[in-house]
Amino acid sequence: xxxxxxxxxxxxxxxxxxxxxxxxxxxxxxxxxxxxxxxxxxxxxxxxxxxxxxxxxxxxxxxxxxxxxxxxxxxxxxxxxxxxxxxxxxxxxxxxxxxxxxxxxxxxxxxxxxxxxxxxxxxxxxxxxxxxxxxxxxxxxxxxxxxxxxxxxxxxxxxxxxxxxxxxxxxxxxxxxxxxxxxxxxxxxxxxxxxxxxxxxxxxxxxxxxxxxxxxxxxxxxxxxxxxxxxxxxxxxxxxxxxxxxxxxxxxxxxxxxxxxxxxxxxxxxxxxxxxxxxxxxxxxxxxxxxxxxxxxxxxxxxxxxxxxxxxxxxxxxxxxxxxxxxxxxxxxxxxxxxxxxxxxxxxxxx
Length: 351
Ligand SMILES: Cc1cc2nc3c(=O)[nH]c(=O)nc-3n(C[C@H](O)[C@H](O)[C@H](O)COP(=O)(O)O)c2cc1C
What we know:
Blueprint: H1 12-15, H2 20-34, H3 39-44, E1 50-52, H4 61-69, E2 73-77, H5 83-96, E3 101-106, H6 112-121, E4 126-130, H7 135-143, E5 147-152, H8 155-163, E6 168-172, E7 178-179, H9 187-197, E8 202-205, H10 211-219, E9 224-227, H11 229-232, H12 241-247, E10 255-258, E11 265-268, H13 271-281, H14 286-293, H15 297-303, H16 327-346
Parallel strand pairs: 1-2, 1-9, 2-3, 3-4, 4-5, 5-6, 6-8, 8-9
Antiparallel strand pairs: 7-11, 10-11
Helix pairs in contact: 4-5, 5-6, 8-9, 10-16, 13-14
The site of flavin mononucleotide (FMN) has 30 residues, from strand 3, strand 9 and helix 11.
């Protein structure tokens, strides 16, 4: 039988040696097997560098466990939980997954001391802090064996977080759902600057809902992505069905940064939003705005599905999402798109 002719024209049976083509193919296959890890994967002990951001009224144990089971890192959002509720969610999450998971703790939380005691006592593997100064908490969490990441909206805050000793940085651009940075820096602008400001493992957030966006921020120096909006709109998210359905009908330009005097928040336009706008135009004080906001506006909108009077927080990228999928399908799709994107781009060099 004639020897097999390989793609590069060499004939393996004649020499008994591996051709350079075969060598390269073997190296590529080897790299594909062993280089699936990066710093973010090793830091958290996860398969894919996809983190589900903590989200008030969306990210309970069900969503966190589903994302962790799919190979990402699921975060329970403590921001909308009483301390006892958080403990319950941690226990349930641990029962639902053998994989690492974490808790997101917004640092302006009123019962912060109690929350910190719970995550340390429960030996939660990972904590993502946000909305505040991580310095008073980082070493205390780390000495309890917890890996700590902190969310920032600018390189100045990234440097401060690095000085506070955090293990990783999440840099979140202005496209993101939830509360935004006052600087209004977009993800594309933010990531390279935070990359230059710190050598810590860097996770990009804001407007990332596909593997293509993941590849884009990796090209800018990120080593992981934190995804909020796309996971808020999955089957396991605890947001109300009415909220999810409203979000998947949004068009481009239908979320707006509001409540700048209190805490800039990206919202969908509704009666509540218009009342905020009216007050802001009249030059209302932060206290007047806080009074209108009252307590439980986000719960009303996101969790209870009051689309008129509730606070409807979601990211710009909602306009790209048209289906409520299970969270594991989102992780699977994102990783497939990521690899397809890398392959597509590798064919585009311009010598
Ligand atoms: C409904 C909603 C609630 C959020 N709540 C929180 C929160 O409690 N704490 C926090 O650090 N980030 C919160 N975020 C931000 C997310 O964790 C994540 O960083 C952000 O959504 C990423 O941008 P994306 O929405 O474009 O994916 C929230 C986002 C959304 C959409």
